[in-house]
């Protein structure tokens, strides 16, 4: 019996785009999160006496700003060397985008698979064969799995692959493959990377995305970490998730239905907040809050959303102090059924937004009309995945919901001044 760690998508020193633009953000803590999560990975491997660690791509996040990233990495990998733990890894699309990484001299316990062919590393004392192939370029669109060798007889065979598998929302279609194609190799375990959500694609053999080790934005919610895989004497696997993240992104929906005062609304938020805190006792929780439902407070909230954002943040500080940071508050309440809408152009704008949000075909057409705008936007803006995805009707709907209270506040206040 032996144990190994399966990790992927570490994105060491990820810049976390636009973070400085968030009011009151714990910037230093969040920027250092990928390093601290990697330290937790190293500590877990040592504490669990893992025989080896496999990293299925994207150890880095593209090119480094300076050599501090490399020096830090070598210091951590050396701790594994001192503990007698080898590391086997493939380069993913972000690793291939790094010029400096290609010339980095890794400690002797680290084995990086080549880019021009699939190769095999054997651990004879364990009867283990690990097969892998690295990305040669930032965008690899062909299936790499056919180039992998057949299973080594008499060994526990592990395939290490950076891939989108059959395709996953929000992830580029790199190195696509099929479950059937992976199974044909006869391996016992496929350690996959690239998709940031933990997922078991097949039980026998185990074909698994470990997910990333540290969430980087509000769409990467919940615990993030690695998989501790135990292999028994019959070559059966037991997979155990181990959280490594130190900053956890979460969302919470506060049902504002039938609330009649701001105190009622804040009390409901506090109840939701306490549930999140209890579930994340040892990490900084970064929370996105959505206020939803029919409520008599709708007009009050709509007239001054900034005030209610600060009320929510103040309640969070009162309940949890520095354990929680409110990343964003979204206002998606509705007036009670039968309530009067503003007249004239303001009411017509409300009707248009509601009709657009309720019609998927109209949203798709609207998304297509944004193509020209997308071409004019700076690259830095478009790279922030949380900010802009003009070809995603769901995201456009979210942006409409966010823009609604801002538009209404400006239009209604402007009308009052006149």
In short:
With 418 residues, the chain is an alpha/beta fold. 35% of the residues lie in helices and 22% in strands. The model has no long low-confidence stretch (mean pLDDT 86).
Model description:
The chain has a six-stranded mixed beta sheet, covered by helices on one side. It has a six-stranded mixed beta sheet with strand order 5-6-7-8-10-9, with no helix packed on it. Strands 13-14-15 form a three-stranded parallel beta sheet. It has helices at 27-31, 33-47, 68-82, 93-96, 179-183, 262-279, 298-303, 305-320, 344-358, 360-369, 371-376, 379-383, 393-417, and strands at 2-7, 52-56, 86-90, 110-112, 119-123, 128-132, 156-162, 189-193, 199-202, 206-209, 225-231, 237-243, 247-255, 284-294, 324-334. It has 13 helices and 15 strands. Helix 10 (360-369) packs across helix 13 (393-417). The protein is of the alpha/beta class and 418 residues long. It folds into three domains: 2-243, Purple Acid Phosphatase, chain A, domain 2, CATH 3.60.21; 246-340, no CATH class; 344-418, no CATH class.
Record the SSE blueprint.
Blueprint: E1 2-7, H1 27-31, H2 33-47, E2 52-56, H3 68-82, E3 86-90, H4 93-96, E4 110-112, E5 119-123, E6 128-132, E7 156-162, H5 179-183, E8 189-193, E9 199-202, E10 206-209, E11 225-231, E12 237-243, E13 247-255, H6 262-279, E14 284-294, H7 298-303, H8 305-320, E15 324-334, H9 344-358, H10 360-369, H11 371-376, H12 379-383, H13 393-417
Parallel strand pairs: 1-2, 2-3, 3-4, 6-7, 7-8, 8-10, 13-14, 14-15
Antiparallel strand pairs: 1-11, 5-6, 9-10, 11-12
Helix pairs in contact: 2-3, 6-8, 9-13, 10-13
